[in-house]
Amino acid sequence: MIHISNTKQIDHMHPLPSINRGTKVSFVNRVQISGHKHFAINYLHRPSPTIYTSIGVTMRLRRAARIILVGAPGVGKGTQAERLLQRFPQLSAISSGDLLRDNVKNRTPLGIKAESTIKSGSLVPDAMILRLILHELKTRGWLFPTSTPTMTLASSAISASPFEYDTDSYVEQPSLAEASSPPQTSEDPSASFILDGFPRTVEQASQLDSLIPINLVVSLKTPASVILERIAGRWVHAPSGRVYNTTFHAPKVAGLDDITGEKLTKRPDDCEETWRTRLKKFEETSEPLLEHYARRGVLWEVQGNSSDEISPKLYQEVAEDVSYLQGFGAWRGWWERGGFASHRRQFTLYRLFSFLFF
């Protein structure tokens, strides 16, 4: 047993003690961070790495996970999102594009306004997309209003709930982020979701941050040559959306869908020239976006040449951040990713008790 009770200053010259993976650990760490109150961390043992590669295993979340996957076109975000939903049953998928289409189809007040905007050739305003997401979370019971905020427009000030469908007021140029009292997000594990399609820019991320705090952003990295090879062999069944690949997931009969027997087609944008154009646009917007989330301490990068290589790493990251299956490595990973980077030199360790059980 090792007992440490002395007080010492911790900064970049005095890193926290490291413990090898697999070591059973139980400790309480009290730290004062620039006026913030103390926090406590209690960890047990790190699970076996084989659990992340095992098929059919599901994991339970210990708190709400609000996840965003970021990656170049063709990297496999859709595949990884589907696998996360299977591995962590408490997760749900929320797609800004699907929400927009559903509202247009159902002729909701917001859908009518969005349809008019689209038909005029204009882009759907960020505030409209954000309102869609807020309304969806509120409908599911995952978002609660704390008070009635005041939103200021260029011409006048109005008071409205963040959940009301006052389309004329916020579509012009509302700033939901300026609400005097932002809504409260549920931390119940069942209120966990993967957000798809939003945000794509730093500006969108900043608006989202003030209303829905994202706690895990994963950047998926695959070499361009691998993605191009994947795109070249990709075939789709348009009616169902089923995707095949002649390299690693070929249809039973070449050119035909396994279920219906109907012909498979190529996506119009599945060519190198189109992909490189999309990649350039993605890089221009994603680099600032990733830097934004890195500063917030919620960014993690996962690299791999295939979906099967990426998935176990992705499971492990989610498990260590928001799952019951977490060990000391989760806290160590948080520190290595920069955790409280701006406050490191101001850390004061008042008391640290560390007990190692072998």
UniProtKB/TrEMBL annotation:
It comes from the Eukaryota. InterPro entries: Adenylat/UMP-CMP_kin, Adenylat_kinase_CS, Adenylate_kinase_lid-dom, AK3/Ak4_mitochondrial, P-loop_NTPase. CDD domains: ADK. One of its GO terms (biological process) is AMP metabolic process. Its main location: mitochondrion. Residues 234-269 form the Adenylate kinase active site lid domain. It is found in: Mitochondrion matrix. Keywords: GTP-binding, Kinase, Mitochondrion, Nucleotide-binding, Transferase. GO terms for molecular function: AMP kinase activity; ATP binding; GTP binding; nucleoside triphosphate adenylate kinase activity. Residues 95-124 are annotated as: NMPbind. Its EC number is 2.7.4.10. GO terms for cellular component: mitochondrial matrix. SUPFAM superfamilies: P-loop containing nucleoside triphosphate hydrolases (SSF52540). AMP binds at S96, R101, S122, L123, V124, G197, F198, P199, R200, Q204, R267, R278. Pfam families: ADK (PF00406), ADK_lid (PF05191). It catalyses: a ribonucleoside 5'-triphosphate + AMP = a ribonucleoside 5'-diphosphate + ADP. GTP binds at G74, V75, G76, K77, G78, T79, R234, V243, Y244, S307. Residues 233-270 are annotated as: LID. Consists of three domains, a large central CORE domain and two small peripheral domains, NMPbind and LID, which undergo movements during catalysis. The LID domain closes over the site of phosphoryl transfer upon GTP binding. Assembling and dissambling the active center during each catalytic cycle provides an effective means to prevent GTP hydrolysis. HAMAP family: Adenylate_kinase_Adk (MF_00235), Adenylate_kinase_AK3 (MF_03169). Monomer. Involved in maintaining the homeostasis of cellular nucleotides by catalyzing the interconversion of nucleoside phosphates. Has GTP:AMP phosphotransferase and ITP:AMP phosphotransferase activities. Belongs to the adenylate kinase family. AK3 subfamily. This is GTP:AMP phosphotransferase, mitochondrial. The lineage of its organism: Eukaryota, Fungi, Dikarya, Ascomycota, Pezizomycotina. The gene is ADK2.
